[in-house]
Each structure stands twice: as C-alpha cells, then as structure tokens.
Amino acid sequence: MHSLAAHDICPDLVVGSSVGALNGAFYAGDPTLKGVLRLETIWRGLIRQDVFPITWRTVLSFIRHRDFLIPHDGIQKLIDDHIPFRNLQDATLPLHIVATDIISGDSVVLSEGPTAQAIIASTAIPGAFAPVRYKDFYLADGAISSNTPIKVAVSKGANRLIVLPTGYACSTHEPPVGAVANALHALTLLISRQMVSELEDLGAGIEYFVVPPLCPLVGSPYDFSRTADHIERAIRNTDAWLAQGGLEQRTIPHSMRPHDH
What we know:
Layout lengths: L1 H5 L7 E4 L1 H11 L3 H12 L3 H4 L4 H9 L8 H10 L12 E7 L5 E4 L4 H8 L9 E3 L2 E4 L2 H4 L3 H6 L4 E4 L15 H22 L6 E4 L16 H17 L18
Parallel strand pairs: 1-2, 6-7
Antiparallel strand pairs: 2-3, 2-5, 4-5
C-alpha cells in the first residue's frame, strides 16, 4: 500500500479478508500516504500479546470451559483505537469485508453494519477465536473460503484489480523444520494456489496486477518482531515492481506459480 499511495494510485473500492480486512478497513478510512504511514506505525508498535494474548490462564480456561483459546479483546481494541468509522458504509472508500460461514464454508460479504463486528469475524481463526454471530450466520476467518477475495471484487463491479497478497512461503529445497512451520507452509501453499486458480479463471475483460509478495517470508505470522523488516522489504520490492512496469503487465509473479523441478 505504501508504494501505491506514494505513486498516487488510489482504488475505487477495497475488498479485504482475514488480516486484509483489518488493513483494508484502515486504508479505506484514509487512502493516502499519510494514512498508510500511520498504519505502518501501528504495526511496528505491536507485539504478539496485543493480538494473541495467550497466557497460562487462557490455556487452562480453554481446556476446562471454552471452545476457543483467545478472546477478541485485542482485535477489538485495535479497531476502537485506530479505525474512526463505526459502520462499514461510512468509510471514505467503499469497503467490503469477507468472512466465512463456519457451518457451510461459504463466503459472506459484509458491506454495511458495525465495522468491529465485521473485522472481528473476518479475522476469527477457528480454534483460536470464537465464531461471531451475525444475523443467521456464525462467521469465522475469511481466509477459509477466500483469503484473496478476487471474485468478490469482480462481483462488486471491479474490472481492474490490484492484488496485494500476503507473504508466501515460496520455493524451498527442503520442508520447513517443525510441525507448526510445516502446517503454515502448507496453508500458504493452499492460499497461493487458490489465488492463482481464481486469477486464471477471470474473463478477458478483467485486468489484474499482482504485487509480488515477500519471498521468502521469514518468521511466523505470530512473530511481530520482524514487522519493521517486512514493511521495508515490501516497500523496496513494490517500488522495484512499479519501476519495471508492474501496472502494465497482466501477469502472476513467477514465485507464486507451481515451481519447476
């Protein structure tokens, strides 16, 4: 977002899922370089406990009484402290947030109503956070059904897409070390393949431009100590991509395609 805003590139609408719902909502409220810099400052100042406050008490409570591990308090505070509009329809740019119906697995698109409820639902990782009741749905992490909600953007009228994928555990010669690392690697592979498949299925009338994700993405999604490094790398990579005509070429980054052997 930093590089796009610095080049005065502003979208007509924003669609976000999972952590993209949080970032997308903040951006839709202030789609300027100044707004993006504020968002970067927020992320640089976060620690794991701000978002994933896991303690022995929460673990014991989970074992004894609850069907979720972490309360929504951390995400709620982030929203209350930093996103000024209380309803999605009040954002500066049209904003659509994608969550998943945990019963059917279908995507549910939220375009109006309470901002906090929509973001909390879209970021509610199953098992870690409780699903959010919304009308007749129980909503959870949007990444389950659509981590990169391309089809949603098209259904909302977009015919030129700029896709900002999260970091991708790209080509490696050996499996990652450890059970959690392997699980996360598998998840990012699944998400990447889903995105590539959706882009390749788009009709000829839809333009798309994919900002190359960080490759490799070093560290765990739950490790906030590398945030500053990730931001700086992303800015450099996106600046280079723009300088090389990234917004003139309808291509999928090579690192996101099935790897040659």
